[in-house]
Amino acid sequence: MNFDLSDAQKMLSAETRKLLAERASPNHLRRLADNGAGWDPELWQSVAEMGLLGAAIPEEFGGVGLGEIDICVICEEIGRGPAPLPYVNTVGLAAEAIRLAGSPAQKAAWLPRLASGEVVAVYAWSEGAGAFDPASLSTIVRAERVSGRKSPVADAQFAKLAVVAAAEAGAPGLYLVPLPQPAVDVRALEGFDQVCRLSTLTFAGAHAERLPGGSAAFMRDMEIRGAVYTAFEQIGGAESCLYMARDYAMQRKTFGRVVASYQAIKHKLADILLEIELARSNAYYAAWALATHAPDLAEAAAIARISATTAYDMASRENLHVHGGFGYTWEADCHFHYRRARLLAAYLGGPDIWGARLIAAMQARHSRLAA
Fold it and tell me: What does the DSSP assignment read for 7-18?
């Protein structure tokens, strides 16, 4: 089976990388962190003009009608920065939830605005630590009014729409909540990734509109989708760490020799490369499974999530070690990836949660095959 990208996807990757290298350099990230912005609206518009925000949105709603693998390609390039873009949240989750589960009127109202970059949207599902469970949501809806709390939610401070997981009469569902509105309190959280802001959303009877297809099973599917897209973002970040460590080791000298000439450093870099390539192989298969609705999608997504988290964690730590004491300073660029690796490892649930889901998915499929 060939998992290589098409020529069009390779061109998409190259053009996205070129744009982000010009507009999301480490010095630019440092300026955003210093001024507390957390994101760059001008960069967001540049990404919109390139058509990346409408990647999976149908052409009838102002998008370019690409597929899941194309979104994966874009996510990998965003992870290399790491670029200050709420891409997975807006494009990979919120827009996809509306496209797949929304009514015709909801699609017409929101998808063109998402594709143009006018609206940043967030997918608000988490209610704290632990695994997400649609059957035990504490956020509730009564008479089209939502009450409860979601935390942490990435990118909510500049969002104009939230897709919120809530329960109505005991039945879980997804609801569109326009932002800002008086009945929604957005409170910033103090986090360690200074170019990706987290918030707590508190709803006190905010107006909410239900997505017709937003069932509990659909929420599970969205979680799987987010795991695959995030795995590619993590792989892009891990590979950036590898190249950063390699380049520094090839120019840094100690005891009259470049650091890269020492066997211990060579082995360290080789170990990072092996971890990345394992994660990439798993992520490519998961992307194919997502695009083709393969029966083992849940397992593939869990494996991709676990291996990509492991690879990014290892690469970001070893990048610091190769840089030595300088790597821990604000002037070095290592901390951007170290912070992002910590954030992405926790935001969708860690390897322990996805390991349990992998076992459950394998047992369920074994039971179906044995029946």
Answer: HHHHHHHHHHHH
User: Is the pLDDT confidence value at 285 over 60?
Assistant: yes
pLDDT digits (tens, 9 = 90+) for 64-73: 999 999 999 9
Element (H, E) at 42: helix 41-49
Domain boundaries, the chain: 7-119, 122-213, 217-370
Mean pLDDT over all residues of the chain? 92
CATH number, domain 122-213, options 2.40.110.10, 2.60.290.11, 1.10.10.410, 3.50.50.60: 2.40.110.10
CA distances from 223 to 104, 131, 171, 187, 197 (A): 23, 11, 18, 24, 20
- CATH number belonging to the domain at 217-370, selected among 1.10.3810.10, 3.40.710.10, 2.60.40.10, 1.20.140.10: 1.20.140.10
37 pLDDT above the threshold of 80:
no
pLDDT band with cut points at 50, 70 and 90 for residue 257: confident
Q: What is the pLDDT of residue 15?
A: 95
> Distance (Å, rounded) from C-alpha 344 to C-alpha 89?
12
Q: Are strands 209-210 and 198-207 parallel, antiparallel or unpaired?
A: unpaired
Cα-based distances in Å from 131 to 30, 306, 367: 33, 15, 23
Pairing of β 257-258 and β 253-254: antiparallel
CATH of domain 7-119: 1.10.540.10
Lowest mean pLDDT among 3-7, 212-216, 233-237, 357-361: 3-7
β-partners of residue 204 are: 147
